[in-house]
Specification:
Layout: E1 4-12, E2 15-25, E3 28-33, E4 38-43, E5 71-72, E6 102-108, E7 113-121, E8 138-146, E9 151-161, E10 165-172, E11 180-182, E12 187-190, E13 195-198, E14 210-215, E15 220-224, E16 229-235, E17 239-244, H1 246-252, E18 264-271, E19 278-288
Antiparallel strand pairs: 1-2, 2-3, 3-4, 5-10, 6-7, 7-8, 8-9, 9-19, 10-18, 11-15, 12-13, 12-14, 14-17, 15-16, 16-19, 17-18
6-O-phosphono-beta-D-glucopyranose (BG6) binds next to strand 17.
Length: about 290
């Protein structure tokens, strides 16, 4: 084993001054930003980057970093009427993408390098609390476990709340036309046409703007193009979201180059149900082949 350790970085790529941690386990490495608790890089071997980070990503002035694995919590997308009955101006994808997280624990062992981050949030909308609960600051935790063959991300909250969450992973791809995601369910909500659809199989391909919520997906998805294959294990989810903005949206996003959409697809493990207040335990594991 050449190297097992955790080091601090100040800045990553073009994101100058960004406080980050770099985890190393043998040949494998991962970088996580304390701003957003966001994994920005996962390289199972040196130079083999699996995650996409926009060349135009920003983090100053409250921006959410475009790429890596944003943490969406305690709601996903625009806050729904249940979470935001008074239609307050709330940010897309929740409250923690542009806040600083703390390091709680880090550890290197014979089998892995891991770090636990957390953030305390004390400005949750009242609608998230069960009727009989008294509002208090809430702790959200993210654990990263890097081993020789995989990276696991565990997002947890021990407070029962009406809460949604997603690990919104941006995966770097070589050839969008050849890219497929399989293992999906055969029923999805299409955010582009704003309608539910049935799919003839469990597969998504990319030939136009794609923004789909697949319900009740199983525990294993596969992302492949003609050059690489990745298994994505998930637990604690009730849906998986597939997103590619395509040309027009890519042009409209200030933190994405016009051709940015050709370089990634998002495969997101999400917990979206709001039927009852629940704890959160959402896991996504990336296993390259
Ligand atoms: O621009 P944001 O807030 O990072 O969101 C990006 C995309 O995130 C996806 O998860 C959503 O399904 C899309 O609708 C959304 O456009």
């Amino acid at each position: 084993m050449s190297q097992v350790n955790i080091s601090t970085l100040t800045g990553f790529g073009q994101l100058s001054d960004l406080p980050c941690l770099k985890l190393q386990y043998g040949n494998a490495s991962a970088v996580v930003s304390l701003y957003g608790g966001q994994v920005l890089s996962y390289q199972p071997t040196p130079g083999q980057e699996l995650l996409w980070l926009s060349d135009n990503a920003q983090w100053h002035n409250g921006a959410a970093i475009r790429g890596g694995v944003p943490v969406c919590w305690p709601w996903f997308g625009p806050a729904s009427a249940k979470i935001n009955p008074e239609q307050q101006p709330l940010p897309n994808h929740g409250l923690v993408r542009n806040r600083l997280w703390q390091i709680r624990h880090s550890e290197s062992s014979a089998v892995s390098t891991s770090v636990n981050l957390s953030i305390v949030v004390n400005d949750l909308p009242e609608s998230l609390w069960p009727a009989d609960a008294k509002a208090h600051p809430v702790n959200l935790a993210l654990s990263l476990i890097l081993s020789a063959n995989q990276l696991t991300m565990q997002l947890s909250c021990d407070t029962p709340l009406y809460q949604q969450a997603a690990l919104h992973s941006y995966f770097r791809i070589q050839n969008l036309q050849q890219t497929t995601v399989t293992g999906l369910s055969q029923n999805y909500f299409d955010k582009v046409s704003n309608a539910e659809h049935d799919s003839p199989d469990d597969k998504a391909c990319f030939s136009a703007e794609t923004d789909r919520i697949y319900f009740k997906t199983g525990s294993q998805l596969h992302l492949a193009d003609d050059k690489q294959q990745l298994t994505i294990n998930q637990q604690g989810h009730d849906a998986s979201v597939i997103w590619n903005p395509w040309q027009q949206k890519s042009r409209e996003l200030p933190d994405m180059a016009d051709h940015g959409f050709t370089e990634f697809v998002c495969v997101e493990s999400a917990r979206l149900g709001l039927a009852q207040p629940q704890n959160l335990y959402l896991i996504q594991t990336l296993i390259p082949h």
